[in-house]
Every structure is written in C-alpha cells, then in structure tokens.
Amino acid sequence: MLAAYALRGLKAGAVAGVGFALFVALVASPLVAVAEERAGHHDEHAADGEHTGEAAHAHEAISAGPLSVSTAALSTVTNLLGGLGWGLLLGLGFGVAYYFLEPAVPGSGDASVYLLGAAGLLTVSGAPWLAVPPQPPGVEGAPLETRGLRYGLALAAGAAACLASGALYGRLTTAGRGRFVAAGAAALPLAALLALPGLSPPVGGAGPLVAAYRGVVLAGQVGLWLVLTTAFARLHRRGLDRDATAAAAPTAAAAD
Amino acid sequence: MSQSSTPASRAPTVADRIAAAQTSLTATQVALGTALVAGLLFLLAFAGEPAVHESLHDARHAAGIVCH
After folding, report:
1. How many CB atoms are located within 10 Å of the residue A59 CB?
2. Among A15, A190, B47, B54, which has the minimal tally of Cβ within 10 Å of its Cβ?
3. Which residues have a Cβ under 8 Å from the Cβ of A96 and sit 6 or more positions away?
4. Which of B24, B36, B40 to mutate to test the interface with A (most CBs of A within 10 A)?
5. What is the model's pLDDT at position B9?
6. Minimal Cα–Cα distance from B16 to chain A, Å?
7. CB of B30 within 8 Å of any CB in chain A?
8. Integer Cα distance of B25 and A174 in angstroms
9. B41, closest residue in chain A (CA to CA)
10. Regarding beta strands A67-70 and A61-64, do their DSSP bridges make them parallel or antiparallel, or are they unpaired?
11. What is the rounded distance in angstroms from the CA atom of residue A169 to the CA atom of residue A101?
12. Which has the minimum average pLDDT: A32-46, A125-139, A211-225?
C-alpha cells in the first residue's frame, strides 16, 4: 500500500516537475542571467567571479566526437532535468508522507491532500526561506556551508512545527473542543516559526531586483506544490475508486 | 496491495500505517526508493563538484535552495 502511495507521489511529481522545469527554463534562467549581469557590472570581485566567468564561457562549445553542443544548450538541458528531479523528489517525499500521515491530517479526501501539501511547502521552502531568504546570484551572504546548515535546521523546525500543529488540532478536536478553537491553537506552533528570521543575522540585499527575484522563486514553488497536490489528489481518488471496485467484485479481480 | 490491514470497524491510525509498511514492502522497493531519494538529494542539494553545481545552477536558484 505504501508502494502505491509512493508511486502516485512519483507520478504527480513527474507532472509537477515537467511544469517546474519549463518554469526554470523560461522564467528563472533569464532572471538569473539578468542578476548575474548586474552583479558582474556592480562588483568586480575576482574571487567571486564564477558567475561572470560563466557568462564569458557561454559561447564556448563542448565537442565530444561527432556531437558538438554549446554549453548554453547543455546548461538548459541539465537545468530542465534538475527541475524535473526537484519535482520527482518532492512528489516521492509527499506520497510517502501522505501514506503515513493520512490518518492524522485534518479534513478528508482532497482537502487533506491540499492541507498536507501546504505543510510540505511550508516545511521544504517557507520555513527555510525565513532563515535563509532566496538570494539572486551576486548578492554575497554567509558562507555556503553556514547557509546550508541554517536551511537544514529551519527545515527541521518547520517539519516539527507542522507535526505539532496537526497533533494539537487532533487532540483538541477529539477532546470535544470546537474546530475554530482547535485551529486557533494549532496556529501557535506555526506562528513560532516567525522567530526564525531573528535567529540568523540579516542578510544584505534589498532593491527591486532582489524583491522581483524572491517573488518569482516563491511563485515557482507555490505553483509546483499546487500542481503536485492537484495531480496527487486526482490519482489518489482514482486509486481508491479502483480499490473499491476490486473489493466489491472479488471474483472479477481474481479472474485477471 | 489494495487490502488494508486495519479492520473496517475503526479508523486507521498512523501506527497502523507504520505497522503495515513494515510488512508490505519488498526489499527491492525499499532499495529503489532509497536510491532514488539519495541520488536526487545528493545531486540537487549536496553535490559541491563545480561541474555538477554549475550545470544545475539555475534550477537550484529557481527552487530557492542555497547556492553561492
């Protein structure tokens, strides 16, 4: 049964991943290129010049035997695959998480899928972004390792807050409290996440380009999770219908 | 696979799901899933090799994963 859920998650992740890959290639890549160009004009740090160097290398070509591809085209392909991979990873993780948490998630049917999807977005992206806001290339912050560690810790804090929130809601509703009281109490662990930006030093980076960049990144992840959960809910409903049909007609199921 | 191990008389719990997962999965399924997740995580989040990192640069930025 877990395998069926994981497979549904993987399928939904493939659908969302294709969409996200297109978003990377058509929206994010051009914006990153603009930010890199800006960064190249504004500061001339030789040590941080990987991005400017990359831009200069963009016209080179890799020739491997009869195949000759420009690095720009190759980079588009690898980034498309990267976007697809991100969708698959989230989809598989979501399918497995939904299998285990389905009995505990408030709501039923599609509503619980969308609710767990919102928790997933908050855990994987929302909480970490409070600690480490998405930065366009060229804006230097703390070292990569430090930011990676903060991202991981904030992700764990987000997961813990979502689980605590769900558990609190479950306890209060089974204890006979009203749904609104329970929802209000369940919002408290999530509100505690708002302390995350205070724990890490403020990072430089203001201005319209950074704001636009963050908006685009946010929109991309919200869109990814919307497609993922919509596809998953649809596949899940179809799977349950099939199970019900098989259970109702065991002789027909045994025949094939 | 479609048969749930919980009796229909009560709603399933998280503990039931964990118990069911421990008996219903084959070693191949576990290995496949673990390999897929580990591979994707390594490629997308942890690989520091410049060539790998550069080739996934835009995708990482678009996903809001930390990037230099």
Report:
1. 9
2. B47
3. A2, A5, A6, A9, B33
4. B40
5. 63
6. 9
7. no
8. 32
9. A89
10. antiparallel
11. 14
12. A32-46
pLDDT bracket for residue A55 (50, 70, 90): very low
- A144 to chain B, any CB pair closer than 8 A? The answer is yes
| H or E element, residue B44 | none
User: Cα separation of A22 and A29, whole Å?
Assistant: 10
Q: Domain coordinates of chain B in residue numbers?
A: 14-63
Nearest CB to B59 within list A83, A137, A242: A83
Q: Which two tokens stand for residue B19?
A: 């118990």
Per-residue pLDDT tens digits for A59-109: 455 555 555 667 888 888 999 999 999 999 999 999 999 999 999 998 888
| Chain mean pLDDT for chain A | 85
> How many CB pairs (< 8 A) connect A and B?
137
- Indicate the DSSP class of residue A193: G
> Would you state the structure tokens that stand for residue B58, as one six-digit string?
């835009």
The residue type found at A254 is: A
pLDDT band at A191 (very low <50, low <70, confident <90, very high): very high
Domain ranges of chain A: 2-42+69-245
Q: Pick the more confident residue, A200 or A157.
A: A157
- Of residues A51 and A25, more confidence is placed in A25
Asked if A243's CB is within 8 angstroms of B63's CB, the reply is no
Q: A194 to chain B, minimum CA–CA distance in Å?
A: 19
B contact test, residue of A24, A34, A228 with most B CBs within 10 A: A24
For the segment A4-22, the average pLDDT, to the nearest whole number, is: 96
> Which chain A residue's Cα is nearest to B17?
A100
**Amino acid B50: pLDDT:** 78
Cβ <8 Å between B64 and A50 = no
Q: What is the pLDDT of residue A249?
A: 80
